[in-house]
């Protein structure tokens, strides 16, 4: 359970370090920005900021990326350390006490005769020496407490009692007592280069990891017992806590944290918790009792999770690998009617889904490849797959399929497209080696090539083949070749479009039935739509300089829209226009960065628009009739989202706040707001009938309020 989410750091700055104070009532969080280390001190119960920001400048930006922090024994000072430097802050006064330079690791000593002093390590090639500093003024007290030779890696324990040294020879880790430089303990670890050493927060356990494998060794320092575990480690360093009878290992990955119970005789994963945050995990820090976990993320937020490490197996179900493969979908092709789409899930195989119920109607054994082309037949019963030099025809609901290679013997195909002209005829447009091109029609019954056309392919060309296979446009830097199918002669003939010069452009898209072609001109950046049957422009150009994606509808039966519309995405806004008049029907907003690159398409009867977000692994669907209703009725409320999570009206008045873990999946199809997380059901708020007033009582039904007052008066009389 997430207790709170603190958002004191900038959303652009990843959390580099989080650390509990000795009494764990507060914590420090650190991010970096252009070589500057920024720290906040926060309350561990609420996440509220107590003090900060404290800013320390690193000598170089890469030094700031290594930032870390630890508290003094009394919790009044924080030692911020980065490569070769350390800064001591008085967090109550907000003042910098002093700086120390030249060390590699710095900690406060919490025990023994040096209690409250600062220990630091210094490297001289393969030698490591420990120095002692006065924590009050930063004066060097001992230039060399002791020195260790033949060192590969060194790490001071959080309480300053021990120095762990990974030796270069002998696959040995030595544990030195900092107070006297004696009482050395030695541990053997499996062969391989040692990449990291990590102590538990209480300095009771030591963890070592090899760089050549995912093998982890864990030692209890009191009994010198050793356990080992093989587990995949993410890019975030793991953490360990020591409990009374076992150790618990926290292994963060991109978006999950696995918790392992490590006994000296065996190890097993208790649970793998999926983060509710939408940003990637950058740091974790468990409390000493294992009941809380601080989680820092790449968007600068810090969350506190409530855990019960001793009973996690009973309290929470195992969530690892329980997600169905279809949770993360990529829509790679759609039928002419929009009623069916081809998708690829995490399993890597192509399957087919009905867009109304989003149910799987057909599965294949075909693995999707990066350069694979897929086309669906007009009746939606067949699919054609083009990969490398082979075309495979497959039944959607059955696994019957056959393959053929249409290329002349010995010729290589560089780029190409396929489309069903009818349910039995497949159109192929491709560029072969030596700039030769071909445009063919194959009758699938008997695999007969019924029409071939050979032509010279311009250099740096792109092919745009209509979904119905009746129009082909080949665009290069200075040449446009257009071909159209003549039903009477059963052949492709050269074809010309009105204002053909504007076909040199960007963002080409056909309507699902192939009757319209849209292009954003390279000359004036406006969008033009042509009728592929006549070659004429459908209306006036639509001005829109920045375009991320476009989609054209099929013929619409809904008279409120007209017969054709085009959707244009720009930044986080999608606008819907009438193709013939250029009229803006409606506009609505998608989540931040959700529509930079992913494609859009109309599905079902053309009154729904789907946005396929590959990065998030989800599909968003808008009902355009609701958007049009809002545009025509002109509801008073217009919602807009701020970066800090507040939803505002058109006058920038704050309405309500959305937690950070839900913002990446937040979008605003006016006049509604939808709050959700990938792979989970979203919550939608319809605010079309909302009323904005200054007092909350003005929003309450007067009759209900009067009845409530009468009920309260009756209760008082009875008392």
Mind explaining what this structure looks like?
With 719 residues, this protein is mainly beta. 40% of the residues are buried. It starts with a strand and ends with a helix. β35 and β36 form a beta hairpin. Among the domains are: 14-97; 102-188; 202-320, Methylamine Dehydrogenase, Chain H (7 Propeller). It is built from four helices and 59 strands.
The percentage helix is under 10%
Shape: globular
CATH topological fold name of the domain at 202-320:
Methylamine Dehydrogenase, Chain H
Largest sheet: 4 strands, antiparallel
- Count of separate DSSP helical elements: 4
CATH superfamily grouping of the domain at 202-320: YVTN repeat-like/Quinoprotein amine dehydrogenase
CATH architectural grouping of the domain at 202-320: 7 Propeller
Cα radius of gyration in angstroms: 33 Å
Number of strands: 59
List low-pLDDT spans: 313-328
Distance between the termini: 42 Å
SSE-based structural type? mainly beta
Mean pLDDT: 80
- Which CATH class of the domain at 202-320 is shown? Mainly Beta
User: Main sheet: which strands, in order across?
Assistant: 1-28-27-26
What percentage of amino acids are in beta strands? Answer: over 45%
